[in-house]
Specification:
The complex is a heterodimer of chains A (293) and B (323). With 293 residues, chain A is mainly alpha-helical. Chain A is 73% helix and 0% strand. The longest helix of chain A has 44 residues. Chain A starts with 6 loop residues before the first helix and ends with a helix. Chain B is 75% helix and 0% strand. The chains are: A mainly alpha (293), B mainly alpha (323). Chains A and B meet through α1, α4, α5, α6 and α10 of A and α1, α2, α5, α6 and α7 of B.
């Protein structure tokens, strides 16, 4: 590494650090605000016009009401199911595709690659895809959320790049010993490609966790809603009365805001707890994709 | 004479036939040798045909009067009727303009932001401080679109956080999401907030590959930190910047409806309604399937042309190309 010891360099370092700290504070403050506001006393929060540096008063009333929401917990469960099932399907299909595309000698892989790349630029668009899902009888089922996006072309190419970077000697000796492609994939490639698989689990998993557009256009029964759609009702379309039917409208006004903030916290905490430990994998995935892309 | 023509035809057909035969021979050998690879390819190919190519085939409803009871194959061909009605319609100018402007905002503000941030981060030599800052700036990337929309809505409300700040500086309170002139600023601002940290990753990666000796040489030559940045750091991420710029220019006409439809409302349609949100509204809220598909097809084709021309330009200017 290059070392800097002069006064000028030190000043430069301090200014850089200072700017970065300010930027980070700006980035993190909205989230901190949400957290503080969710724990604040609703009435105090409502009349507050200052920047929050700690919760105003303390109240967990909002959290109690959030958990009374008839759909919140069931939608949490739905989301977990969709994430697990969806990501498994994604992994299965993407691995197969990536393996096929990573074969050096397969004669037809060129055509499959062309077929895949075309879909990165052209697509049927919203309506034909929706009609397809409808005609397949998948409307209002989980399958509409997990099957149509089973392969992301981009992720498949990242995975293929990962596979191709593996040393081929093991594979060759396995072939000589009579192993077929399924055995090679399962026993040799996958164990060696754990980092890229971790990246895929994270990319697909997070996108399922956060996705809502598909659910909005394909699902009709509210009991099948994933968490994000219930959040949409609470945060965006503002139908919160079913949380608190027994509260008067006047009393409800102030707590409405804190309920919203508490909902955000409840829905976001899991991913916030997980991502710092996984960020090196995310970064790695972006890199593999960037090298090839 | 006649004989020789037949002969010529025969001679011409011969290599053609041979080539075809050779192709099938190769295919046959390949299928035997790689049979398991072919088996693995089946689900993938089937998936692509059903979920990507069938909808592409379904795009034909853009040229038809689609009728749900008759399906994609039914309905009368109407040529460019839906395209023309879009061109002549009330909203053509509005959605095209909004799509372009929102993307331009993103290009002007959203594109340089992660580059600047990455350059700043690159000047940090304390590893744990750098890691801490990175953890913080990556965070918004993991917050879902709905939650971001929820935060925007709460913050822009009359008694929301942004209005608290506006009032602190002597402004007056207003519901910011009801004001068309603010929509693009709010939208682009929230996008930058969410994406700027994540966007640094690819640049930091490019920077980590720079040879330290270059910096040392620059220091010996008397270059200060600014000189190093201008002559070593920036040039080394230039290919990455150009590639991403091409991709961005290629996307000038596309922008997902997802975030827009969460925070726009009829009062702000004037500045907020873009092609994809219009496609969504016409198609799935007003059930105007054919019209909506036509608009979508038009934007897909436009995007592809844009990408091709951006790539062509960068090949001319910079010798950097996507393919």
């Amino acid at each position: 590494m290059v070392y800097y010891n002069t006064l000028e360099q030190k000043i430069f370092n301090i200014i850089t650090a200072f700017i970065l700290i300010i930027l980070s504070l700006i980035i993190i403050y909205p989230v901190v605000y949400v957290l503080f506001a969710s724990l604040s006393d609703p009435v105090k929060l409502m009349s507050n016009t200052k920047v929050l540096v700690k919760p105003l008063g303390f109240s967990v009333e909002a959290y109690k009401l959030v958990f009374k929401h008839p759909l919140l917990l069931s939608s949490y469960k739905n989301t977990i199911i969709y994430v697990v099932v969806g990501t498994s399907i994604n992994l299965f299909m993407t691995t197969l595709g990536a393996y096929v595309l990573s074969r050096r000698d397969a004669f037809f892989k060129k055509y499959i690659m062309i077929m895949v790349v075309i879909t990165m630029f052209f697509g049927g668009g919203l309506i034909p895809s929706w009609l397809l899902v409808k005609n397949l009888g998948m409307l209002d089922t989980m399958w509409a959320l997990v099957i149509p996006g089973a392969i992301s072309a981009w992720n498949m190419i990242i995975m293929r790049t990962g596979f191709m970077a593996l040393p081929s000697s093991l594979e060759e000796s396995a072939t000589i010993d009579g192993a077929n492609d399924f055995v090679i994939l399962w026993r040799i490639i996958l164990p060696m490609a754990k980092p890229v698989i971790a990246v895929m689990v994270l990319f697909y998993g997070v996108s399922h966790w956060n996705s809502w557009f598909g659910a909005m256009i394909y699902l009709r029964s509210r009991e099948k809603y994933p968490l994000q759609l219930v959040l949409r009702e609470i945060l965006v379309t503002q139908t919160m009365r079913d949380i608190a039917q027994d509260i008067d409208a006047v009393d409800f006004m102030p707590i409405e805001q804190t309920i919203k903030y508490a909902t955000i916290v409840v829905a976001t905490v899991p991913i916030m707890c997980v991502y710092p430990f996984l960020q090196k994998y995310f970064a790695k995935g972006v890199l593999i994709g960037a090298l090839k892309g | 004479m006649g004989n020789s023509i037949v002969e010529m035809g025969y001679k011409k057909a011969q290599p053609e036939n041979n080539r075809r035969k050779a192709f099938f021979n190769m295919l046959k050998k390949d299928i035997i040798k790689n049979k398991y690879v072919y088996i693995m390819a089946i689900p993938v190919v089937v998936y692509y045909i059903i979920f990507d190519y069938w909808p592409m085939y379904g795009v034909q409803i853009a040229f038809k009067d689609f009728n749900p009871t008759e399906g994609i194959m039914g309905g009368d061909w109407v040529g460019f009727k839906h395209f023309l009605s879009f061109f002549n319609g009330h909203y053509f100018g509005r959605v095209v303009r909004n799509t372009l402007i929102i993307n331009l905002y993103d290009l002007i503000w959203g594109f340089p932001a992660p580059i600047a941030l990455a350059l700043l981060l690159n000047e940090v030599y304390n590893k744990s401080f750098k890691k801490l800052i990175q953890t913080v700036i990556y965070m918004p990337h993991f917050i879902s679109g709905i939650v971001v929309a929820g935060i925007i809505i709460s913050f822009s409300a009359r008694n929301g956080f942004i209005n608290d700040i506006i009032e602190m500086f002597g402004g007056t309170r207003a519901n910011l999401l009801m004001r068309p002139e603010l929509f693009r600023t709010i939208y682009t601002g929230s996008k930058i907030w969410q994406g700027v940290g994540w966007g640094t990753i690819v640049y930091l990666a490019a920077l980590s590959g720079v040879d330290v000796q270059l910096y040392e040489a620059c220091i010996i030559d008397g270059g200060n930190r600014w000189k190093q940045m201008a002559h070593i750091t920036l040039p080394s991420i230039m290919p990455t910047i150009v590639t991403l710029l091409i991709l961005n220019i290629g996307k000038l006409m596309s922008e997902g409806a997802g975030r827009i439809i969460l925070i726009y409302n009829p009062l702000t349609y004037e500045t907020a309604d873009i092609i994809s949100s219009y496609v969504y509204r016409r198609g799935l809220q007003e059930f105007d399937y054919s019209f909506s598909t036509a608009v979508n097809l038009l934007s897909t084709v436009l995007n592809f042309l844009l990408l091709i021309s951006a790539n062509w330009m960068s090949r001319k200017v910079n010798e950097t190309s996507l393919w």
